[in-house]
Amino acid sequence: MQISFERASKHKQSIFSKWWFWLLLIIVIIGSIASYQSYLQYNLDKAWKIEGQNVLHPSLSSKEVDIPQNIIENKFGWLGDGNEENTFIGVAGGAWIRPHPGPFLWDSMQTSKDTEISFEATDKLVKSQQNLNYGTLATLWPFAEWDQNSSVDARACEVSNQDKFLPANDKTGHIEYLPLHRCNPADWSKYEVWISAIVERYDGDGKDDMPELEIPIKYWEIMNEPDLQYQNNLQEEETNQLNFYKQGPIEYATLLINTSTIIKKTDPDAKILIAGAAGDDDRMLEFYRKVFANTEATKAFDIGNIHCISNDQETHDFNVTAYKNMLAEFNIILPIWVTEAEAFNKSTANDNFTSTKNSTSSAIHAGAEKIFFTRYSFDDYRTDMSQNDTSNELSENDNINKYLIITSQY
After folding, report:
1. For residues 148 and 96, what is the distance between their CA atoms, to the nearest angstrom?
2. Fewest CB within 10 A of the end CB: N or C in the chain?
3. What does the DSSP assignment read for 261-311?
4. CB burial string 127-150: b at 16+ within 10 A, e below
5. In this structure, are 40 and 70 located in the same domain?
6. Are residues 251 and 186 part of one domain?
7. Could you tell me the residue range of the domain that residue 33 belongs to?
8. CA–CA separation, 296 vs 316, rounded Å?
9. pTM for the full predicted model
10. Total domains present in the chain
């Protein structure tokens, strides 16, 4: 028995002294760890739900990130032109992009109440803009056909079949669109799930963020120009072609308050932009006066928002002064951004440049903190922006140099 024990001991020692034994053991350990991690990831993906709603491919990031200071301090941006590799903005002196309408649309991110929220298009946008070192102002569109159709009066929420933002009417080949129905959400709880998921993914807090997020989204715009069709502000032809919102100021106040509450709950550092007023016409500003009749609405945003589509011929300040005065009626003193800025009132490129330059100067003097230009070419004479830009009077470098004259002053 003693001899057998000694032989067994020596045999055991001989095994432990073999290099291949330790190599095999290491391989087994590494394989076990990898298998366990795959198991955990599988169950994480399977269990990744917010109040019962699946979210597609979380692949979470754990690094905290902020918008670089040079972007924060830059006063200029442009509307997205559908080109994800838009280098024009940076070389023309800007650092911000406002995708329009952009991919932050409930309908395109969640195609039914039971499907997962897809971040494919929004991730692609965020990654392309951070690669260019741009900050993103994201417009949130609260419309999903499956949700709108569950409304009691869904027909009242339909826009005209001639609307420019319906997929069938786009002449530019963009994949971004707006759906047929455009009212407040019918199911606010499902809407909250969607908003929370978007904000959490791009807030840069290092928790549940997009993989490789470098420049977070901290500025959220709650829809666009809900006042445009209020009290028949447009001609009949324009009414059929452009209608962002089928409800009124009372309903928009509810949308603003509810969305702002969800965003701030998810990211307390986020900044909320009220939807941009379509102009300084009293009919348009009256819409916001009625929004602010709800005192909660006056506290539901951090930044005022005005548009000027070549309708500041008298003031030449991108409508900032009139909008600022309207806010003051309600003791609202907040930063103001011009998220659509255009002063193409003349028939030549040089006149359009001079008009844009003067309006930019007056708008900043009146208190505008940021300005987003709508046009890339001063010889772009289109009146229908759903058509392709065919301008060729000036080269791209000519337009860049003219914009640099404007942006380099600030």
Report:
1. 32
2. N
3. HHHHHH-TT-EEEPPPBS-S-HHHHHHHHHHTTSHHHHTS-SBEEEEEES-
4. bbbbeeebbbbbbbbbbbebbbee
5. no
6. yes
7. 1-47
8. 32
9. 0.84
10. 2
Do 26 and 85 belong together in one domain? no
Q: Is 40 exposed, middle or buried (0-12, 13-18, 19+ CB in 10 A)?
A: exposed
| Shared-domain flag, residues 144 and 204 | yes
Measured between alpha carbons, how far is residue 188 from residues 115, 128, 185 in Å? 17, 31, 6
Residue 56 placed within a domain: no
Q: Which of 266, 279, 274 is nearest to 301 (CA)?
A: 274
Number of helices (H), then strands (E), belonging to the chain: the values are: 15, 10
Domain with 168 in it: what CATH number?
Answer: 3.20.20.80
Amino acid identity of residue 80, one-letter, is G
Residue 126 forms part of a structural domain:
yes
Average pLDDT by consecutive 10-residue portion of the chain (410 residues)?
44 52 63 53 42 48 90 97 84 97 97 96 96 98 97 91 90 82 97 98 97 98 95 66 94 98 98 97 94 98 95 86 97 98 88 95 97 94 66 88 97
Task: Return the ∠ at Cα 385 (arms to 174 and 141), rounded to 5°.
Answer: 60
Mark whether 42 and 120 lie in a shared domain: no
58 found inside a domain: no
Backbone φ, ψ for residue 392 (5° rounding):
-150, 10
CA distance 96 to 71: 7
Distance (Å) of CA 104 to CA 17, 98, 143, 220, 371:
62, 11, 10, 10, 21
Contact 95, 133 (CB under 8 A): yes
Report helix, strand or coil for 316: coil
Q: Are residues 67 and 183 in the same domain?
A: yes
Residues 331 and 365 in one domain: yes
**Domain-located, residue 267:** yes
Largest Cα–Cα distance in the chain? 111
Q: Cβ neighbours of residue 242 under 8 Å, at least 6 residues apart?
A: 163, 164, 165, 228, 234
pLDDT at 59: 52
Q: Which amino acid does the sequence have at 10? A: K
Three-state DSSP class for residue 382: coil
Please give the span between the terminal C-alpha atoms of the chain, in angstroms, as a whole number. 94
Q: How far is CA 275 from CA 37, 62, 222, in A?
A: 44, 32, 5
